[in-house]
Amino acid sequence: MSPAPRRYLLTGLVLGVLLVLATYGVLYLAGYHIMRHEPSAPPPSEKEKAPLCYVSPTNPDYIRFEPGKDPQGQQLVPVYPTQPPSPGAPPPERAIKYWQSPMDPKYIRDKPGKDYMGHDLIPVYGEVGPPTPKPGVPVKERKIKYWVSPMDPGYVRDKPGKAPCGMDLVPVYEEEGEARAVEGTIAVDPNILQSMGVRTAKVERRSLAHTIRAVGKVLYDERQFSVVNTKINGWVERLYVKATGDPIRKGQSLLSIYSPELVATQQEYLLALKNRRNMEKSPFPELKEGAQRLVEAARQRLIYWDIPAAQVAALENTGTISKTLTLASPVNGIITKRMVTEGQYVKAGMPLLEVADLSTVWVEADIYEYELPWVKVGQHAQMTLQYLPGETFHGNIHYIYPYLSGATRTAKVRLAFANPKLRLKPDMFAQVEIASPQAEPAVAVPAEAILDTGEKQHVFVALGQGRFEPREVKVGRFGDDRYREILAGLEPGEEVVTSAQFLLDSESRFREAISLMLEGKEKEGGKPEGPPAAMPEHKH
User: Fold this and answer.
1) Are 169 and 157 spatial neighbours (Cβ–Cβ below 8 Å)?
2) Contact 131, 142 (CB under 8 A)
3) What is the pLDDT of residues 102-130, one digit of tens each?
């Protein structure tokens, strides 16, 4: 072969090899593999490539929607969505109830799709169909009460249809068994109860106690308070009590008064006595009786002027007229007020001295209206004073005033305390404490379990399995341990809700309104024309 054809042959071989290599490169870049013995795996779907979020490997609460690092510098780990089963082949024992956002459980739809953050909705499964009835037991058909929007519980209809959001209305069935027997009973899913923070407590029969603390004021014992005065006009000739605050004894002389009327009356009494003696030998009985009446009238006048009987007897025996009248103290005590001086002219009825017995003092304390059932006459009380720290005085409730103060809406309670050493002084302020235990145990519940509407009081009784019954109760007194007495409506051992009652109350009132609406339609004897109006928003 000549050199020219050989050169053409080599050139063609080289070009052919280059063409084969170029073709293989193009096919490789296009995704084809020439030398492969196993079937190629399908390319990953776009859903599998897109993670839902990125989370820290050590802190699950640290979540981001873009790759990066956590505050500790660790690389965030992608979280991929769980692949739902194909629509054509659902699990044989489960059915999809609805579709839910993985990041916002409140975002619910009735078909697959994406939420407002772009994440794929995940299915929530439930039981397939109704439970299988037992052999020989007839199946009881459940009665539909009304139809409601799955997204807006306030949108209610009496027949199937579409909600404003385009979703099919779902039926709400009448409650059966015990829940149906009680008007207003509601049923709540246990998961929702946990998210609502519902707590319950047992109804107990327990002893209640209440301690009343109030500010009191020390006062005089009015039963042992006296005012010294005179019943004749005259001049104070001598004053035996010189200063306010002096202690005195019962019967002690306080002052002497000179009165011309007193002297004239004594003279009349002596003349009457002399006349009676002269008339004793008279043969006329009328004259004797007249003389005796004059003696009695003069003596009675002296007695009415508080002349002591001993001084009257001395006047009869001696015939000596006393120039002054001496006034004595009617009680033991302290001179609290002196309104007269020696030589002063006084008139009949004018107060001269005030005397108080401080061996016993009163203390008046103000208590609130709701505390009145806890106090009674004779109940023990104790008192402390700021100027005697660490010392406690013991007394009793002496009187409960039958009226309230219009300004403070409080009632006054009078307490009596012994004061042998005179350390309790009138007008002092004191701290009063009245411990009031209840005599017999009573049915009681925590005070926060009671819903007070102003006219009635209600509680929610837990019936079990997420069912609650609103019940009216009659309440009594408050206790110190935040328990309140129940007079009627509950029995020991029952369980009441102590938190989140307002949410249950809203649900109960909402269902009651729906029942009233449907009952009204049934009484009308037919369905209204056109679609019924939506229920108004319930405000609680």
Assistant:
1) yes
2) no
3) 766 667 787 888 887 788 888 877 544 44
Q: What share of the chain is helix, strand, coil (3-state, %, to 5)?
A: 25, 35, 40
Kindly report the number of other CB atoms within 10 A of residue 91's CB atom.
Answer: 10
Residue 539, CA distances (Å) to 184, 198, 518 in order? 17, 20, 20
C-alpha triplet 529, 530, 533: angle, nearest 5°: 105
In one-letter notation, the amino acid at residue 450 is I
Decide: pTM greater than 0.70: no
Q: Which helix (H) or strand (E) holds 346?
A: strand 345-346
Per residue, the 3-state secondary structure of 13-71, as one string, reads: HHHHHHHHHHHHHHHHHCCCCCCCCCCCCCCCCHHHHCCCEEECCCCCCCEECCCCECC
* Alpha-helical runs (H) found in 30-173: 46-49
**Whole-number Å distance between alpha carbons of 186 and 468:** 5
Determine which helix (DSSP H) or strand (DSSP E) holds 474, and give its type and residue range.
strand 467-478
Identify the burial level of 289 via C-beta atoms within 10 angstroms of its C-beta, where 0-12 means exposed, 13-18 middle and 19 or more buried.
exposed
Residue 41 is predicted with a pLDDT of: 47
Residue with tokens 């009484």: 523
Do 480 and 371 meet the contact criterion of CB atoms below 8 Å apart?
no
Give the CA radius of gyration of the chain: 52
Question: Collapsing DSSP states into helix, strand and coil, what is residue 196?
Answer: helix
